[in-house]
């Protein structure tokens, strides 16, 4: 089963788990070693002094062990529940901070704070319960400690009275077992930390030991000497792991010829972007095959495969660094200044970059907020073509832009699409009329395929209906 953990919850889990383990392996670990040595030494001295008295007093020790066991069991369940609640609260914070502009635009700050407070209330109540159990357990440990004192004095007095022991041996047994019982009491106070640490260790190892079905670090597989760019989807069926009840593709078959532009159109949710996700091997199909130049993608070296593809998405991700660094990100090795400027010119980005006060050294801000949508898109295009991909993947690269920005970006795309296998996902049908092939996706399969003119000639066809709806929407 695939673990699907939200990013905020994952961050909180790793932070809390590491903190819990640190608590145990720090001062508490020293106390644990100290208590263990005290226990061994105490029993050795007590048995050497008066083994009969020691055996009688030891009868109290199982109660301490029973108390420890019960306390650990209670704290175990409390710790697990509290961690889940804290992860939920952290997820609310992570989403709110990451989307702070959206939160502010809807004046939802108080609502987010209220949601977070409610999540924390549950954690606080769980913490109070855990504290009560820990306090009762520690109190019981002290009770057993004082009962041990009483038993030792009472039995020791009887032994001295009957001449079976001496005053000196009784006090030697007493002090040896008192310190031993005191050490056990200290250990019981650590029950909460040790329980949390055990759970945290299991949790961290579960994350570390998890192996992805698609390992990006693996060097296994084939590397083709020459890539033409012929892509074939053969009877592909696919469901997203996070939505196993929704069938995205069912017997999806599509051939994409080398060096041509293939456009994918269809209603929202029809699976257009899923084609790109499967080509990049972010996912593997449930059944069927996807091949590049006749070789199934699963048999190719993953890193090499992704090097052959350049991806430009609808909302490009830029890192909080300079424009130069963001463009150079597209190449594995070091990119020269000449290469960066060349791809920037090809992406129609050099002119606006040069007009900036710091030029290529301009920091784009977090997620590229210092640049406009069109500027971010052109930087992303430059980054994609720096790797000189044989296959270019354009996932609605111009859908979120205004007319002027779209024209600049489209001109850049027209330059880089030449002699490459290009797959275009678009909502704006006007941008794909010149595509070599248009594939219409509906109900998880290819409903129609052909050029714009031939598809428009099909009366009542899916593509013709989409164009008609788009025309009406544009006119209104």
UniProtKB/TrEMBL annotation:
| GO terms classed as biological process | oligopeptide export from mitochondrion
- Pfam families found in the cross-reference section: ABC_membrane, ABC_tran
Record membrane topology? Multi-pass membrane protein
Task: Report TM segments.
Answer: 29-47, 53-70, 133-159, 171-191
Its keywords, alphabetically, are: ATP-binding, Glycoprotein, Membrane, Nucleotide-binding, Repeat, Transmembrane, Transmembrane helix, Transport
| Taxonomy, superkingdom | Eukaryota
Q: Which residues form the signal peptide?
A: none
Q: Which residues form the ABC transmembrane type-1 domain?
A: 1-196
Query: InterPro entries, from UniProt?
Result: AAA+_ATPase, ABC1_TM_dom, ABC1_TM_sf, ABC_transporter-like_ATP-bd, ABC_transporter-like_CS, P-loop_NTPase, Type_1_exporter
The entry lists its GO molecular-function terms as:
ABC-type oligopeptide transporter activity; ATP binding; ATP hydrolysis activity
The GO cellular component terms are:
mitochondrial inner membrane; plasma membrane
The record, for SMART domains, names:
AAA
Looking at the record, the residues that make up the ABC transporter domain are: 231-468
User: Per its UniProt record, what PROSITE patterns does this chain match?
Assistant: ABC_TM1F, ABC_TRANSPORTER_1, ABC_TRANSPORTER_2
Tell me where in or outside the cell this protein is found.
Answer: Cell membrane
**Family statement drawn from the similarity comment of this UniProt entry:** Belongs to the ABC transporter superfamily. ABCB family. Multidrug resistance exporter (TC 3.A.1.201) subfamily.
Q: What is this protein called?
A: Uncharacterized protein
């Amino acid at each position: 089963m695939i673990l699907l953990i939200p990013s905020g919850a994952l961050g909180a889990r790793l932070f809390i788990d590491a903190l819990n383990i640190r608590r145990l392996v720090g001062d508490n670990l020293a106390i644990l070693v100290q208590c263990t040595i005290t226990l061994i030494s105490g029993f050795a001295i007590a048995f050497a002094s008066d083994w009969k008295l020691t055996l009688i007093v030891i009868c109290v020790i199982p109660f301490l062990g029973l108390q420890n066991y019960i306390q650990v069991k209670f704290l175990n369940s409390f710790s697990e529940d509290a961690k889940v609640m804290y992860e939920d609260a952290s997820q609310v914070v992570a989403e709110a901070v990451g989307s702070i502009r959206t939160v502010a635009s809807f004046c939802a700050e108080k609502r987010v704070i209220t949601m977070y407070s409610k999540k924390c209330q549950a954690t606080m109540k769980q913490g109070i319960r855990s504290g009560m159990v820990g306090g009762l357990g520690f109190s019981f440990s002290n009770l057993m400690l004082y009962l041990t004192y009483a038993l030792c004095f009472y039995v020791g007095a009887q032994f001295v009275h009957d001449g079976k022991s001496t005053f000196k041996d009784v006090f030697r047994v007493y002090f040896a077992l008192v310190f031993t019982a005191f050490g056990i009491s200290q250990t019981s106070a650590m029950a909460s930390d040790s329980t949390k640490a055990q759970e945290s260790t299991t949790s961290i190892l579960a994350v570390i030991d998890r192996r992805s079905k698609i390992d990006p670090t693996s060097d296994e597989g084939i590397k083709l000497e020459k890539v033409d760019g012929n892509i074939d989807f053969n009877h592909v069926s696919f469901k997203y792991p996070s939505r196993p009840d929704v069938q995205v593709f069912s017997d999806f078959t599509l051939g994409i010829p080398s060096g041509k532009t293939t456009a994918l159109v269809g209603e929202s949710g029809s699976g257009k972007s899923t084609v790109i996700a499967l080509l990049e091997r972010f996912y593997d199909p449930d059944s069927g095959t996807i091949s590049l130049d006749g070789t199934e993608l699963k048999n190719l070296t993953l890193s090499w495969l992704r090097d052959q593809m350049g991806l430009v998405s609808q909302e490009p991700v830029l890192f909080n660094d300079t424009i130069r660094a963001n463009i150079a990100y597209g190449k594995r090795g070091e990119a020269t200044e000449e290469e960066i400027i060349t791809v920037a010119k090809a992406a129609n980005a050099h002119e606006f970059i040069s007009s900036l006060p710091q030029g290529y050294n301009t920091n784009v801000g977090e997620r590229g907020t210092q640049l406009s949508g069109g500027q971010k898109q052109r930087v992303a295009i430059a980054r994609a073509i720096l790797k000189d991909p044989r296959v270019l993947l354009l996932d609605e690269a111009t859908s979120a832009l205004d007319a002027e920005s779209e024209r600049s970006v489209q001109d850049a795309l027209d330059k880089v699409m030449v002699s490459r296998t290009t797959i275009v996902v678009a909502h704006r049908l006007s941008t794909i009329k010149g595509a070599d092939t248009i594939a219409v996706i509906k109900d998880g399969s290819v409903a129609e395929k052909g050029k714009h003119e031939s598809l428009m000639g099909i009366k009542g066809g899916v593509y013709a209906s989409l164009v008609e709806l788009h025309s009406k929407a544009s006119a209104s």
